[in-house]
Amino acid sequence: MSLYRSTYQHWKGKHQGIWYRRYAIAANGIQSAWSSKWTRNMVMAAWILSVVQAALLFGIGQLLVKDSVIYSLVEQLQPQLQVFANGLMSWIVAHPEISVRSIYSFLFYFFSGWMSTLSLIIIALVIPSLISRDLSSKAIIIYSSKAVSRFDYFLGKFFSVFGVLCIAWLFPVCSAWLLGGLLAPDWSFVWHSRMALFKSAAYIIFAASFLSIIAMGISAVSVKEKSATVIWVVLWILGNVLSRIGAKTESWIQHLSFNYNLEQLSLKLFQPKNELSLLQDNVPVVGNLLRGLPVDRFPMFQSPQFAGAMMTCGIMITLAIIILNWKVRPE
Q1: Residue 153 and residue 135 in contact, taking contact as beta carbons nearer than 8 Å
Q2: Cβ 130 vs Cβ 29: under 8 Å
Q3: Residue 4 has what DSSP assignment?
Q4: Which of 64, 106, 132, 303 is buried most deeply by CB count within 10 Å?
Q5: pLDDT digits (tens, 9 = 90+) for 158-217
Q6: In this structure, is residue 20 part of a structural domain?
Q7: Considering the entire predicted model, what is its pTM?
Q8: Is 175 inside any structural domain?
């Protein structure tokens, strides 16, 4: 007599679609990253910075409230500083469509840049759990089964690191803008600062997508988890060094740094040079203060090398995809 039942039984469970499988891979990657204490600390630091950003935005909003602490502090300044501060605050009240837009544009340009450094550190912590661990444990064989294609595997891994970057970068910046708008004395702040939010979101989404693909490619280079982290940190530091060398020698060398390329995108979106010119033309106090100063020497007020940056980003993404297709193959 047979030990097992040979009759056919139809499975009555719930069928899960392909997007659920991709979601499962992404969720597993996020949970793996979140299990690290250092990753949680970095994410917490990002949200603390978000609160600081909201506090700065609240302080700017108080410039429109004459009974606020800001006005009482201005009255205690020296006479020359009082003239400058009163002139600036009067102009902000009279022209919120320019002042709020320009000030928010400058602040969110810096906010997004500060957060990018934390995001690069988080990637260094997350990168071992992307593909290196699957290659070393042979888990890639299971992922490469018919139920999950390589594309599904790559997409799930992409959203795992992209999701972590959104939690540590996109959401804190957007929350700072929202909280700053809720604490503002006038709803016009929300309307006039909308472009700063849109530019920040566009920059962070592109940067997070780009860095996620690069991180996947680096993670696939070695089966040793620590090696992937070392490669990421070395490329990050080496890129910054080459960027400084290129600034004094050949400009194309700067594009070897993915950090520099993302900075050019940020300059293209936020256009701090144009915002500064707008303030100089419309605020006499600012114009007199900056007259004669060599502001063009500052990198943020120089014309962005946008075309070269985007072309280099495309090349880097292509190389990362080639590495992924080469290293992650069914056996």
Answers
A1: no
A2: yes
A3: S
A4: 132
A5: 999 999 999 999 999 999 999 988 888 777 788 888 999 999 999 999 999 999 999 999
A6: no
A7: 0.86
A8: yes
